[in-house]
Design goal:
Layout (H helix, E strand, L loop, with lengths): L4 E8 L6 H19 L6 E5 L6 H13 L3 E8 L9 H6 L4 E5 L13 H6 L2 H14 L5 E4 L5 H20 L3 E5 L13 H8 L2 E5 L1 H9 L3 H14 L1 E2 L10 H21 L3 E4 L13 H8 L3 E4 L3 H13 L7 E10 L6 E5 L14 E4 L11 E4 L5 E10 L4 E11 L12 E6 L3 H10 L5 E5 L4 H11 L2 E5 L6 H16 L4
Parallel strand pairs: 1-2, 1-3, 3-4, 4-5, 6-7, 6-9, 8-13, 9-10, 16-19
Antiparallel strand pairs: 11-12, 11-18, 12-17, 13-14, 15-16, 15-18, 16-17
Length: 499
């Protein structure tokens, strides 16, 4: 099967060493590419071309990579010494993500046999320093991975970068549908959509909820029946919602909303969407179950018109494809302030993705005190325990900030029988007082993306590709004074690069 996308491997050398050396470099490069390809996420391949030995060849390579829609990024490594001035024109034309692989073909030195022929062939130790110098001189954003290309740690870092590159490519021209407007008078869910498109590539377009309602009304009985049957198979369905139950028609209405929303998003090629409970014209229920199910399939979502979080959820889901765990729109809702174990209870009205569930979700129906519509169907569950990241995309007015907090998801010590929504309970690291204060100092919102699939390294790579600040709150971030100072230093740095 042909890969959906690929990474182009650029191997640098020069003609100084003769044709035999260059033939060996090419053969070694092909073997390295095969090893790197095995560590990539599904649908991504590695393409390696001729060894690059001239400025003209390098410039052509970079132009071709930039123009190729299937190319998600470039990996570069200097097998021998490659004079860096040859790379200037090519690197200046390259806008796609770049990873610098500081490696060499053989892991160990052949101490008894090493001679100058071996030294000339294996010169990454100073060839890559030459390449790194010109990248820094040109201010090229990139990731540098050091080690042997076949070792697990090296491959894990390479795979993390590749996943970030896939998500970055997905954002380019990725349309987001915004049904209705922002929740009234709320600041943090708004932002500059034009600035976001300039910075990130995705576009946010608004649509009246009445248009969505028309798609819902055009749903066929066959579509409704098929979705209802899927729900009966996939979830523990409350008896009142089952066929013959007194509320079964409400499940059919939820399926009708899902079918219409699914058709609208599919026809427009949308990758994420938002809704708001303050604008439900023409819909009988708040789209709760539909949102949960669409998120589980990879759509991004943000509530109350929060397009930034919708885009972020989409990026995280693309990065995490094929990995264990899950990712979801989330909201920091309320606290457990017991000094022996302070925790955050995260939830939302309805819209939490079931990929986080620790057990089979329950499909239920309950009243919703806001929105003024019929009781909505929703999936109810507790998130599985384990390490996670809570992530936000912040619009600071002059620039964007990516904010991430390491957390530990926990199982509730008691049942929550009167809270009929999907929820997640977590301990933020290093502790709640420090993390909450740091989050607030950084301007973090209450809407986030919670993921159990990714590491902070994925976010570091993604932020580097996007050219935005990454602020981390983790187990090592215990000094709030130092944290606030780092925010001020970052402000000075990014103000020189402000939009």
């Amino acid at each position: 099967m042909t890969a959906e996308s690929h990474i182009r491997l650029a191997v640098g050398s020069q003609h100084l060493y003769g044709p035999e050396t260059l033939e060996q470099v090419a053969a070694n490069a092909r073997q390295v590419a095969e090893g790197l390809a095995r560590a990539l996420p599904p649908g991504v391949a590695v393409e390696v071309g001729p060894v690059l030995t001239t400025a003209e060849a390098i410039a052509a390579f970079c132009r071709e990579a930039e123009a190729d829609p299937r190319c998600i990024g470039v990996a570069a490594g200097m097998h021998t010494f490659s004079p860096a001035r040859m790379w200037i024109v090519g690197l200046k034309s390259l806008g796609k993500p770049l990873v610098h692989l500081h490696t060499q073909f053989h892991r160990d030195l052949p101490f008894a046999a090493i001679d100058m022929d071996y030294m000339n062939l294996h010169q990454a130790a100073h060839g890559d320093r030459e390449f790194g110098h010109i990248c820094t001189r040109l201010d090229v954003r990139r990731k540098v991975i050091v080690g042997h290309w076949a070792q697990a740690e090296f491959l894990a870092r390479w795979a993390a970068w590749a996943r970030a590159a896939v998500a970055w490519r997905d954002w380019q021209n990725g349309p987001i549908a915004r049904f209705g407007d922002n929740m009234r008078n709320v600041a943090v869910t708004e932002g500059d959509k034009t600035a976001a498109q300039i910075q990130f590539g995705f576009c946010v377009n608004g649509y009246g909820v009445g248009l969505l309602a028309r798609y819902v009304e055009e749903t066929s009985e066959a579509e409704i029946g098929a979705l209802v049957n899927r729900c009966l198979d996939e979830y523990a369905v409350a008896p009142e919602l089952a066929p013959g139950g007194p509320r079964h028609e409400s499940l059919r209405e939820a399926a009708k909303i899902e079918a219409g929303l699914r058709r609208f998003l599919g026809e427009g090629g949308f990758k994420a969407f938002t809704t708001t409970f303050e604008d439900l014209h023409g819909l009988r229920q708040l789209p709760g179950l539909a949102v949960q199910r669409l998120m589980a399939e990879g759509y991004g979502f943000g509530a109350e018109g929060d397009w930034k979080t919708a885009a972020l959820v989409r990026a995280i889901k693309v990065m995490a494809r094929g990995l264990p765990g899950g990712s979801s729109f989330m909201e920091d809702y309320t606290y457990h302030l017991d000094p022996q174990g302070m925790m955050v209870l995260g939830a939302h009205m309805l819209e939490v993705c079931p990929t986080l569930a620790g057990a089979k979700p329950s499909l239920e129906i309950h009243p919703l005190a806001i929105g003024g519509k019929d009781d909505p169907c929703r999936l109810v569950f507790d998130a599985a325990a384990g390490p996670a990241l809570n992530i936000a995309l912040v619009d600071l007015g002059t620039r964007f900030r990516l904010l991430v907090n390491q957390v530990e998801l926990a199982e509730p010590s008691e049942r929550l029988p009167r809270l009929p929504v999907a929820r997640a309970l977590w301990k933020p690291l290093p502790d709640l007082p420090t993390s909450a204060a740091a989050w607030i100092y950084a301007g973090g919102p209450h809407h986030t993306c919670l993921t159990t699939s990714l590491s902070i390294e994925h976010l570091e790579d993604f932020a580097e590709m996007a050219g935005v600040e990454l602020v981390k709150i983790d187990a090592r971030t215990t000094d709030l004074w130092a944290f606030r100072q780092s925010l001020r230093w970052n402000e000075a740095y990014y103000s020189s690069r402000s939009r």
